[in-house]
Structure formats: structure tokens, C-alpha cells
Design brief:
The chain is 44% helix and 10% strand. By secondary structure, the chain is an alpha+beta fold. It starts with a helix and ends with a strand. The N terminus and C terminus are likely disordered.
């Protein structure tokens, strides 16, 4: 086909591609496509708890449209790094080692349980107040509240069957999350990221 013929040839979209566009020629995402949303948080941070509470209401309306995940911020925020002086977690958390434990617990449940169970677990911890997050007793209580057999679950093995948040798999997840937060440029909570990596800093 010559250049003139190519220029005159009608442009065709596949049926699938055409279905993704509405009558106004705006892209309309497939109903099965979920938008990934990442929140930069600290499990004991009051701003983070407030943001998660707001998102709890959002999820009631759009839970089938988004894929929510939490990215945990560790101290020092401006030069996030792994810290060998913290033998239990390998990172310094802004609100102390109990926060590191809470981060680990939430990361493990996020990895090994359905998203609805994970989010209920996080909300259960938040409901009890930020100073209890990371506490082993609260971990076991919230696991029971969302129907998890903690001691025999993958989440329990990940975070520590005693609820301590010091399980080796969970600590590794925390380190990975902190490194991811560094790559995303998260210094404070709360930041909201879309798939194209733009960010709105919601911290006040």
C-alpha cells in the first residue's frame, strides 16, 4: 500500500478498543479494571488513621473500582534507610518499635488474606486507638474479630504467631515497603498515588 492509499484508508479500532470509548470519545475503563491506589502511612500516625477512616467511607462506594494498598513510612523520613541498629525490624519507625510491629502485622494480613479481611483488620486496630496498634493482644483480638485463626494462619506465621510482629517474613515485608516508600518519594503521611505516580500531599 502506497503512502497516499495509507492516508486515505479508514482508521479501524478493534471491537475491544471501541468498547473502551464512550459516545463523547472519552476513554471509559473496563468494569473489570481496578485503579491501583497507594497510601503512604504509619500505623500509629494520627493523620494516617484519619485518612484510613476517610477511605473506609470511600471503599463503601468504590471498592470494586480500586486496588488499595498501604506503603509504610519509616524514620528518618528524608533519608529512609535500613538501620542495623534496630535488631527487631531493621528500620526506625516514627512512633517507635510498636509502630513497626503494627506495620508488620498489617502487611502480613494484606499479603495472605482477602482484601476485605485485611481492611477490616486494619480498621479494628484503628478503632482501639493508635497507642494500642502493634500490641500482640490487640493483634490476636482483631484477628479473631475478622474470623482469622491467627496461630494457624499464614498471616500469623508471617508476623509471628505470638502477635509480636517480629516474624522474619513480616520484617522483610516491612523493609521492602520502606524501600518502596523511598522510591516513591514519600517523606510524610499521607500521600495518595495513582497508577501514573502523580501525588497529592494530604499531610496537614
Amino acid at each position: 500500500m502506497g503512502l497516499q492509499e495509507m492516508a486515505e484508508a479508514p482508521t479501524e479500532r478493534s471491537t475491544k478498543e471501541s468498547d473502551d470509548w464512550d459516545s463523547t470519545n472519552y476513554w471509559r475503563p473496563d468494569d473489570d479494571v481496578k485503579v491501583p491506589v497507594q497510601l503512604g502511612v504509619m500505623s500509629r500516625c494520627p493523620d494516617a488513621l484519619l485518612c484510613e477512616n476517610v477511605f473506609n467511607e470511600v471503599l463503601r462506594k468504590v471498592s470494586n473500582k480500586i486496588q488499595l494498598s498501604l506503603v509504610y513510612v519509616a524514620k528518618p523520613a528524608d533519608i529512609v534507610r535500613l538501620d542495623s541498629s534496630e535488631p527487631d525490624f531493621g528500620v526506625k519507625c516514627m512512633h517507635g518499635p510498636e509502630e513497626c510491629a503494627g506495620n508488620v502485622q498489617q502487611l502480613c494480613v494484606a499479603k495472605h488474606e482477602p482484601s476485605s479481611v485485611w481492611w477490616e483488620f486494619v480498621q479494628c486496630q484503628n478503632y482501639e486507638g493508635r497507642y494500642k496498634i502493634g500490641n500482640p493482644d490487640l493483634t490476636l483480638k482483631c484477628a479473631n474479630a475478622v474470623g482469622m485463626d491467627w496461630e494457624n494462619s499464614k498471616s500469623g506465621r508471617c508476623a509471628g504467631r505470638d502477635g509480636s510482629g517480629k516474624g522474619s517474613e513480616g520484617v522483610a515485608l516491612l523493609k521492602e515497603s520502606v524501600v518502596l516508600g523511598k522510591k516513591l518519594g514519600i517523606k510524610y503521611v499521607v500521600k495518595l498515588y495513582d497508577p501514573h505516580q502523580w501525588a497529592s500531599d494530604l499531610h496537614t
